[in-house]
Amino acid sequence: MDLGDFYFKLGLKTEPIIDDTTLRDGIQMPGLAVAPEDAAKIARFLSEVGVERIEVFHYQEPDRKAAKLIQDLNLDMRVAGWCRAVKEDVDSALQLGFNEVGISHPVSDIHFRAKWPDKTREAILANLVEVVEYTRAHGLRVFVHGEDSTRADWDFEKKLINAVAQAGVECYRVCDTVGIGLSDETAPLPNGIPAKVCAIKKETQIEAIEIHAHDDFGNAVENTMAAIRAASGVWEKIYASTSFLGIGERAGNAETEKVLLNLCLHYGVEKFKGKTGLLKQTADFIGKATGYVVPPNKAIVGDYGFAHESGIHTHGVLNDPWTYEPYPPELVGNTRRLTIGKQSGKGIIKHKITEITGKPPTDQTLMPVVEKVKEIYANGRRASLKEEEFKKILRTLKLLRE
């Protein structure tokens, strides 16, 4: 069996560009932090897996140091400073030598009322345009992030997009800030993702579009992929704002590794081929560097992503890994794990004995091991047996030397 039997069947008539926000939105997750030197290593990893643009903070001294270290690496990847619509933020980005920035700005009345209750829509928009013009006058490329786009009044939002496009903004980010976006093609504005992607193309003059989906409903990856599909044949390119492991505010964001692997396997995006083998290593380092505990059953990069314990599954995988694996674990840098637990059958226990001792057991030597494992779990054990614990059983039964 070959990957081509099930993958690479679809194509895209748009160029998807991964714009990773691990070092911005990702480290806003409560309890996480990253040292400047580790931030630079993360940036290198991101570049190596195929990320083409990242955004970073640059206000506190550690963030400024990290930004400088990243820029000094001269990676084949664009690095943008994240700003509010405040000239002082832009000045900070200029001082650090950024070539581009993303200006985050609310577009919904919910945010307007909460943040600027005494200002009119027109005054709010005028300030944004002024900051954009100031940024462009200093030679920086500019993205505008439409915060809370999926709850915004469309008539005003398209007016805002056209205004900033005229002022020199090259890309508008649709921010599904509270994760209520819908991937259904029939879902209407403001939170129908495909509808918004198409409406922005049809009714505004902006050059490029981006999707930034939050995972409050568990739909961030789905909505990101829906935006990319909707852009196919409509937009020349679309940026996908994602974070590794989905880390970020509240329930987090669309996972970089999931979006990237979907694009590589299902849609045959060539530029990611040959790079997916670093996904697991990248995830492990980000977890260690930020203090984030990667769930063992995390898709693609979790330690249990290719772990098999129950009798039916281990029997199948031992005969043919394709029975219970969608692709070889090596494709994403992961490892197949066959573990002993409550649901394990004779097949996996026999395999582990052979693996450890170097010779297959007879039925006479196998059954005492099977019974000992059953006894352990009959007494309330839940966790899988560690390798050393299983070896101890083999030593007790004289199948392995001390």
Task: Describe the overall structure.
There is one protein chain. The chain is α/β, with parallel strands linked by helices and 402 residues long. The chain has 2 domains: 8-290, TIM Barrel (Alpha-Beta Barrel), CATH 3.20.20.70; 307-396, no CATH class. The protein is 41% helix and 13% strand. The chain has helices spanning 36-49, 61-72, 87-95, 109-115, 121-137, 154-166, 193-203, 220-231, 256-265, 279-290, 311-319, 346-357, 363-378, 387-396, and strands at 15-20, 53-56, 78-84, 100-106, 141-147, 171-176, 208-213, 237-242, 307-308, 337-338. The model has no long low-confidence stretch (mean pLDDT 97).
Features:
14 helices; TIM Barrel; single chain; eight-stranded parallel β-barrel; 402 residues; alpha/beta; 41% helix; two-stranded parallel sheet
What secondary-structure arrangement, pairings included, does this model have?
Blueprint: E1 15-20, H1 36-49, E2 53-56, H2 61-72, E3 78-84, H3 87-95, E4 100-106, H4 109-115, H5 121-137, E5 141-147, H6 154-166, E6 171-176, H7 193-203, E7 208-213, H8 220-231, E8 237-242, H9 256-265, H10 279-290, E9 307-308, H11 311-319, E10 337-338, H12 346-357, H13 363-378, H14 387-396
Parallel strand pairs: 1-2, 1-8, 2-3, 3-4, 4-5, 5-6, 6-7, 7-8, 9-10
Helix pairs in contact: 1-2, 1-10, 5-6, 7-8, 11-12, 12-13
